[in-house]
Amino acid sequence: MRKFGKGNSLHSVDWLLLASKFIAWWQEGVILSKSHAADWGLLHLSSGWKENLKRCKELRKDPSMVTSLEYSEWLSNLEPAIIEASHNLDSVLETTIH
């Protein structure tokens, strides 16, 4: 995620949705769709990057919104959230493995 997870693309949202999906699976043993992972993350995650999950889900439901100025600017600034999500995922894995 840290190496390839860049902003500025509709597909950038998948990095955050996958992080939420993997954390849910690791912590609760549930397999969620990406849209359900967004909902789960908003309820269960405490990291700041989770606030992006609402927009991620909105773009999955209506990808045409990517052309709006609001969403294109948001996507162009998404890389820090992707990096934070990858660190959060690492932390979850490390704390449950040890």
TrEMBL record:
What's a Pfam family this protein contains?
Answer: AadA_C
InterPro entries listed in its UniProt record: AadA_C
UniProt keyword Transferase, yes or no: yes
One GO MF term attached to the UniProt entry: transferase activity
Determine the domain of life of the protein's source.
Answer: Bacteria
For this UniProt record, the keywords arranged alphabetically read as follows:
Transferase
Please state what the protein is called: Adenylyltransferase AadA C-terminal domain-containing protein
Name the species this protein comes from.
Answer: Paenibacillus etheri
Give the classification, highest ranks: Bacteria, Bacillati, Bacillota, Bacilli, Bacillales
